[in-house]
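In this supplementary section we document a worked example of the pipeline. Step one takes a protein sequence of length 98 as its only input; no multiple sequence alignment statistics are reported here. Step two produces a three-dimensional model, which step three serialises into structure tokens for compact storage. The input and output of this example are shown verbatim.
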Amino acid sequence: MNSSATQTKSSAAFWLVMTALVAVGAYGMGRQWLKSQELGIELEKARAESAQVERLRRENVRLQSKQIATAELGKLREDHAALLRLRAELDTLQNGKQ
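The serialised model returned by step three reads:
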């Protein structure tokens, strides 16, 4: 075999290997890019969810600050029950006088 033919075969093999390496590298980079895009979308969703949780937490604190204390609520219920008893008693007295 002459050296020119060997050199041509070596050159072709080199370019074939280089092309394969470039193709594999491009494929790997493409997959990495797609994965980074997926992770970016996931991150945006997590940020939106975190913002929603924070809004709900603030709303919960606001509502809790407006909530009537347990002791006060018990007193209001007692007053309401007493009011109902007094109305019934008043109705009884008014019906007895007629």
